[in-house]
Amino acid sequence: MSAGLKGIRLAVIGGDEREIYLIPELQKQGAYIVGVGFENASPIPGMTLASSLQDAVGQVDMLLFPMFGTDDRGVVKAKYSSQPIILNKDVLQAIPAHVPLLIGWARPALKSAAEKLGIRLVETITLNEITVLNSIPSAEGAIQMAMEATTITIHGSESMVLGLGRCGWTLARMLQGIGAHVTGVARKPSNLARAVEMGFRAVQLADLENEISRAEIIFNTVPHLILDRVMLEKVARDTVIVDLASIPGGTDFEYAALLGIKALLAPGLPGIVAPKTAGRILAQIYPQLILRHLTTMNAIVQS
User: Fold this and answer.
1) DSSP string, 233-246
2) Which neighbouring-strand residues pair with 203?
3) Contact 231, 212 (CB under 8 A)
4) CA distances in angstroms from 268 to 71, 115, 162, 202, 288, listed in the order given
5) Pairing of strands 217-220, 9-13
6) What's the pLDDT at 272?
7) Packing angle between helix 275-302 and helix 17-28, nearest 10 degrees?
8) pLDDT tens sequence across 241-260
9) How are strands ordered across the β-sheet holding 121-123?
């Protein structure tokens, strides 16, 4: 048993089934876990339950928030909580200066508040070591959603992947493996060249409006409004859209519904389709991340 986190006190706040698998793995490494929002979960041996988020912040060395982060009101996703968990100004002001806050995706308001209050904010959604591994369950989940929503097979389909980033590449490769005719859409010439090398049809994002009508299934990974009204007018009405971009996604869902196009928003797929794998991915990466940031904070405090 590794004891890399021995003596370190961690607050795990909210989340979903990923955290249920993450917590025991952190405990195996010696961490003491304070849970916030797990009243309705099966008891996890050795975990202490805090009465509130504000109660937890003064007990620990680091705060671990879910990958999803918070909504625009500061509400933390918490599947097993009996009451809302809100990361508000009062909580932020109660966080000791030496306690880092680790979160998957931080909204601009949280980043601004953390900077003003001198809170070290660690945003994990930007880390390749997490996002590349998370792209595997994300891609599998997106393909599963497409299979359930379409009347055709993925094999032989005209499948279009918008955005060839960490998730887009994994998704395009999986689709190709199933037998789809894959079109990769990107801005960067280097990504388009790699798409051709991998056997995909490559389309420059600026040319998407002229090409999108051929798609039978569209997977969007671009985190801004790319499938707007103009673009959706070009989409065949029986096309299925699976949007993996962060909420609110990159699709005008209201207009898609008006046109009769089936468009599905699919955030947080790792925690939905493969929580055990997703939890173990976090457990693989978080210990080094925790130790690195706590070492940095200790050095700052002692200087």
Assistant:
1) HTS-TT-EEEE-SS
2) 185
3) yes
4) 13, 26, 18, 27, 23
5) unpaired
6) 87
7) 50
8) 999 998 789 999 999 999 99
9) 48-49, 32-36, 9-13, 62-64, 101-103, 121-123
- Which residue would you say has higher pLDDT here, 105 or 216? 216
Strand 75-76 and strand 85-86: the pairing is: antiparallel
Strand order in the sheet with 217-220: 201-204, 181-186, 158-162, 217-220, 240-243, 262-265
Instruction: Using DSSP, state whether 95 is helix, strand or coil.
Output: coil
pTM recorded for the entire structure: 0.85
Q: Is 32:7 a contact under the CB 8 Å cutoff?
A: yes
Helix (H), strand (E), coil (C) string for 22-91: HHHHHHHCCCEEEEECCCCCCCCCCCEECCCHHHHHCCCCEEECCCCCECCCCEECECCCCCCEECCHHH
Residue 196, both tokens: 């051709």
Name the residue with tokens 């499948």: 159
Type of residue numbered 261: I
Domains of the chain: 9-126+274-302 (3.40.50.720), 129-267 (3.40.50.720)
Residue 267: predicted pLDDT: 79
- CB count within 10 Å of CB 40 equals 10
Instruction: Give the pair of three-digit tokens for residue 82.
Output: 């009996």
